[in-house]
Amino acid sequence: MLWFLLIAVVALAAAFYMRMNARAERDVTNPDAGLAMVEFGRAFPDEAIRALHSTLDHKAIFLRLHDGKAGFIQSHGSHYVCHVIQPGKVRVNGSDSGRGLIVHFPDFAYLDNTFEFRTAAEAAEVSLWLLGRFGPKSELDLSSEVERTARAGD
Does the pTM exceed 0.85? Predict the structure, then answer.
């Protein structure tokens, strides 16, 4: 009976160890976007996140912030590198695939890379964030545009 109990304890410990190893490997290869956002919030508590797009490999996340700036989070194993990017402070080119961006960070050259997204539309939107040209239309903008159109027709 004692041998059976000892074998059961060893088997449970081995199963627990294998499960924890599998989870650790999964976390390294597929970082959690929610955890990355929490880390960005810790690094920059005054920055409000409005939208985000993750790269195809989930190792980098680009953020649109509340005041026209962009954010960047890159996974390095169990920790994240977080930066706030001022509009126009990076160089952006399209990749050959059409769904990616070649980004050069003059202040942080070690981050330079080609980042692939799920769609070309995501890549285009992120490029607008990085270049500071993204201006989503609000209801106020639409109503003033309708008024201008109506006045132009008179």
Answer: no
pLDDT digits (tens, 9 = 90+) for 18-68: 888 777 666 554 556 777 788 889 999 999 888 889 998 888 999 999 888
In this structure, are residues 65 and 71 in contact, taking their beta carbons and an 8 Å threshold? yes
Cβ–Cβ < 8 Å for 65, 91: no
Question: Regarding the domain delimited by 33-136, which CATH topology (the fold level of the hierarchy) does it fall under?
Answer: PH-domain like (2.30.29)
Q: How far apart are CA 149 and CA 58, in angstroms?
A: 43
Tokens 């890159």, located at residue: 74
The CA-based angle 30-33-37, given to 5 degrees, is 145
Supply the DSSP symbol for 47.
Answer: P
Q: How far apart are the first and last CA of the chain?
A: 96
Edge-first strand order for the sheet with 49-54 is 49-54, 60-65, 70-76, 79-85
- Residue-wise pLDDT tens digits, 57-90: 888 999 999 888 899 998 877 778 899 988 778 8
CA–CA separation, 99 and 81 (whole Å): 23
Contact 99, 120 (CB under 8 A): yes
